[in-house]
TrEMBL record:
One of its GO terms (molecular function) is gluconate transmembrane transporter activity. It comes from Limnovirga soli. This is Gluconate transporter. The chain crosses the membrane at residues 30-50, 57-76, 96-122, 134-154, 174-197, 218-244, 250-277, 336-369, 412-436. InterPro entries: Glcn_transporter.
Amino acid sequence: MSLIILLLGIVLLVLLITWARLNAFLSFIIVAILIALFNGMQVPAIAASLQKGIGDLLGSVVIILGLGAMLGKLVAESGAAQKIADGLMKAFGQKYLIWALVLTAFIIGIPLFYNVGFVLMVPLIITISAKYKLPAVYVGLPMLAALSVTHGYLPPHPSPLALVSQYHADLGLTMLYGFIVAIPAIVIAGPIFGSTLKQFKSQPLAAFAGKEIPEHELPGLFTSLFTAFLPVILIAVGTIIKLMALTPNVIVNTLIAISDPIFALTITIIVAIYTLGINRGKSVVAIMGSLTDAVKDIAMIILIIGGAGALKQVLTDTGISNQIAGILQGMQIHPLLAAWSIAAIIRVCLGSATVAGLTAAGIVAPLIAATGVNPNLMVLATGAGSLMFSHVNDPGFWLFKEYFNLSFKDTIKTWSIMETIVSVVGIIAVFILSYFI
């Protein structure tokens, strides 16, 4: 009976978000309460479960999400992202234009949230498309494939970060494995698939071209790259030191300490405030205003993650999660495939990659303890599933359609297929990686 209640709850969640157009956070709370009530939980216990679920999940990710948004805002507004793009274009030349753009999007996509990266990349895509007389879809889709992969696979993006917490994974190792899985996903869904799209000759709307920051106002290339990549460098150094199992001393302990994501991002924000702000003549007041705006931009994302945490806790407290784990074990479905499949189904139904990943995590998390599967790979498998076949219920679908001025049919043939390739190649790469670690 509990599993039927869960199934009906997920159906209701889909209907509330897609048909009733209810806010995702409110939908999560409503469904969590109803599932708890129909499973016989008392009202005080339900309230405690919701509070614990939201508190446990947000307590571990909200600082990182906030700092990550601040860094992204500084990188975008300072022109550091534009400088990185210009520098890579000059380094690669026209012959390897697409590869330069993919690498640009991947680098920029690590600190920037997807929507910010998308809007930031479109003017560059339109400019390059016109300059080299190339179809905008052929130029742009490989870049957006890279942005999509960073959004679905790599912390500090909201879904992967929350999945690391839910699965009790190691953030540094997840990032390391994520880079490995990201390469084939980006290459196949980006340049390889993109090379078949030259026949799509749509003309992007001029209104979306945007304005470039003058060259003399941009930060230096080294400064831009160093600042954008500093948290990745700090976290990577700490992860490598842990894997090497060096004898503890002051230096080793310090490097491990500052590799903690909270410390790494805090250090990077302080550096960025100077390198991308004060050093370029911006006042502290103006910089702080940008950081405040950055946090406002992700407020709803934080609430949605909290709502997913509430649902996950209800599933745990009612015993539904353990029932599902037992059933999946009995069916002999590999945990990685289970995580990917459930996330993919919810993604196709709901459209939101973040909601799909977090909902799936609440269902399959008990499989980690029951089967001993690598939690870092579970993060990536769930992330890959959450990117499956974007279509009309995904805001990203409409962003791509409208910005690139495509028909509905052509958007399915390009954007939706690219997202599917990213998802399928991702889970294949995760399975291959699982044989080596």
